[in-house]
Structure prediction request, 349 residues.
Amino acid sequence: MTNFRGRDGLPNVGVVGATGLVGTMMTKLLAERDFPLDQLRLFASARSAGSTIRFRDRDVVVEDASTADFAGLDIVFFSAGGSTSKDLAPKVAAAGAIVIDNSSAWRSDPEVPLVVAEVNPKALRNIPKGIVANPNCTTMAAMPVLKPLHEAAGLKRLVVSTYQAVSGGGMEGVEVLRDQIVAGAEGCEALAMDGAGVDLGPVKKWAVPIAYNVVPLNYVLGEDGYTEEELKLRDESRKILDLPDLTVSGTCVRVPVFSGHALSINAEFERAISVNAALALLEDAPGVVVTEVPNPLDATGHDPVFVGRVRPDPTVANGLALFVVGDNLRKGAALNAVQVAEVLVAQKG
Ligand code: A2P
Prediction:
């Protein structure tokens, strides 16, 4: 292996946001996948500086990202929120690293490739800003499934409803659901009647309680009453599949599930595609497993995206309905970022 800055030409790797849910998963996956690297450096906010995180057989000291010197790094994963990425990623790229960013800060930039490793790795041949964007966790789950169907029949239109886990909202999301579940646990019968006397504690993170509930307003409203999350689903699907005219109507819903994002997808195609033909394609698709009852509990902790319930959609001429579930911290975030890094390493090799 040549060209990287570490010993024996191996890359020196950094993780910004290393103490968060996705950052923790990144470090875990680098070890699990035996990612070839020399030095690993971990960064977070000043709050965590000086703490240690175990990697392979040693403790790595967490550095304050705002004061750290990023020189000497080759690949730096970012998962510390959009504003940190917007501010810091160009500086890290200018210091010579390729940034693989998990936030939404760079995804719509035409000079930043938006990559799903199995779907459009060729986009990594040109990285003008030294930044690669990792798609939104919801869009990510759909792409490995839709790509082979699109190649066979020409994707035209998507109607998608999501069932998104709280871990997509970071550690805070997990804690809010846990606290509200505990607060309401004694009140299950009352919740089935009228909820009288049940106090789930303060409403945090989402507009209404997430425990014992579903929240169909996932973050901020944007164009035409669609939320930012729903617009990401549209815009990122268009960019990744290179389908600028794809029409997409999404309804993104947060549900009281800790991990594993699910999507109910109605897809319309240019040409006819039978359920059997679709299933045959999906059986062979990289990163996809066909299963009878795709569900978040089973998907969590696993790398592939699970798809099932494939059936005709009789409301349009060439339509399919299907259900997809993926681990939002793995394929939806950290795993794809590491897979992108693996493609970059292979390109240099
Ligand atoms: P810290 O733990 O020091 O706050 P999650 O999405 O799971 O909540 O994690 C967010 C991650 O981003 C954490 O590692 C957090 O570090 C990190 N982070 C938050 N703000 C900054 C910042 N300004 N600079 C660097 N890292 C940050």
